[in-house]
Amino acid sequence: MDKSVFETALNHRTIREFTEDKVDEKLIETLKEVANRTSTSTGMQSYSIIRIEDEKTRKAIAEIGGQEYIARAPELWIFIVDVYRNSRIAREQGVELAAERDADRFFQGFTDAALAAQNVTCAIEAAGLGAVYLGSILNDAEALIDLLDLPELTFPVVGIGFGKPNQSPQLKPRMDMELKFFTDRYREFDHYMDVIADYDEEMQTYYDLRDANRRVDSFSKQVVTRLENASVNRANLAKIAEKQGFHLIGEEQDHVES
């Protein structure tokens, strides 16, 4: 708790291996409050968190993510878009609006969930623990939706596994902010490969603990590899969101009162 906010943020590392120590329940309650105090679009709080304790469910999520270490994390939380709650609050007042299903509501919830996940992760690290983001839960979003009994107007966003670190990975290199921070308008570069040359070289000296201490490819090669191995399931996330009742393509908003 003695580390400054800046020191904690600047030393962020992804932790994938944890000790068997359980996270103190008092800290869990504090982390819940941290999530609860996170900024939220128009105050609608259109997200929820599901804490996963059941071992079978944990293993199923690990299979969906293709990462067996997911099941071993002392704490596993799934952050979701949750527009369902507010739609029911409106309906119990006799109001049903097509707007409850629109893209605005979906992206408000998605942003709310992502902000809450980041806030919680910052608090986890400030408490001296480690965490890993689990975007892999979207490898099979439909399977996860079924597994967690997610109703309509909800959608998975990201997971966090956290606990006491059992590894000390290198600080992963990042590209220069010249490529990501602009003034007044977007900046395009004539030759990106030239601009990232030093970063490419730095990445090739970085060791990723997921790969038995082997060096990783240059960033430019990783970009191509990711594109060549794009997930069909993840490419269809918008269609899955539509199945969950969201209308991501605009349509006339009819007002219905019961």
From TrEMBL:
GO molecular function terms attached to this record: oxidoreductase activity
PANTHER family in UniProt: OXYGEN-INSENSITIVE NADPH NITROREDUCTASE
InterPro entries named among the record's database cross-references: Flavin_OxRdtase_Frp (IPR016446), Nitroreductase (IPR029479), Nitroreductase-like (IPR000415)
Domain of life (superkingdom): Bacteria
Protein name from the UniProt record: Nitroreductase family protein
RNA-binding in keyword set: no
Alphabetized SUPFAM superfamilies for the sequence: FMN-dependent nitroreductase-like
Family, as annotated: Belongs to the flavin oxidoreductase frp family.
Keywords of this entry: Flavoprotein, FMN, NADP, Oxidoreductase
Natural source organism: Aedoeadaptatus coxii
One of the Pfam families matching this protein, by short name: Nitroreductase
Residue span, Nitroreductase domain: 11-164
The keyword Coiled coil is annotated on this UniProt entry: no
